[in-house]
Amino acid sequence: MDIKELTKAEEQIMQVIWKIDKGFVKDVIEELPEPKPAYNTVSTIIRILETKGFLSHKSYGKTHEYYPIISEEAYKSFASEKLLSNYFNNSVESLFSFFVKKQKIDIKEADEILKLIEKLKEK
Predict the structure, then answer these.
(1) How many whole angstroms separate alpha carbon 30 and alpha carbon 20?
(2) What is the pTM of this model?
(3) CATH number, domain at 14?
(4) I want to staple 27 with a disulfide (CB 3.0 to 4.6 A). Which of 13, 23, 108, 121 is the partner?
């Protein structure tokens, strides 16, 4: 499966669709924060997402109900691998160090990460 990178707007729409599982354009708009984008804007982004292979739809007359065909988990995996390779030379240690230095990870979270690493070592 060839996953493409999403723009910020496309990612925002996908986050909504992953959350609601399936829906019409109006359902997506309801979930978006204020100020709400125009119906045509959301509709256009959804059609682009369909072209990129992220969504498909069921037709009900002239209306379409959209649903994801790439899971949130698959995109997270793609995005995190891209982040690691582009900015951290494929080093999880460098990534972890970056977040610690930026104070994005506190001691409790660091401890939880170390526990996860220990569990992985046991396998």
Answers:
(1) 11
(2) 0.78
(3) 1.10.10.10
(4) 23
Same domain, 45 and 87: no
The parent domain of residue 60 ranges over: 8-68
State the residue for tokens 């690493």.
Answer: 117
Tokens for 73?
């988990």
Phi/psi-derived region of residue 103, left when phi > 0, alpha when psi is between -120 and 50, beta in every other case:
left
Helix axes 72-87, 92-101, angle to 10 degrees: 90
Which pLDDT tens digit goes with each residue over 35-75? 999 999 999 999 999 999 999 999 999 999 999 999 999 99
Terminal Cα-to-Cα distance of the chain (whole angstroms): 28
The string of DSSP letters for 23-40 reads B-HHHHHHHSPSSPPPHH
**What is the domain count for the chain?**
2
25 is a domain residue: yes
Do 55 and 77 belong together in one domain?
Answer: no
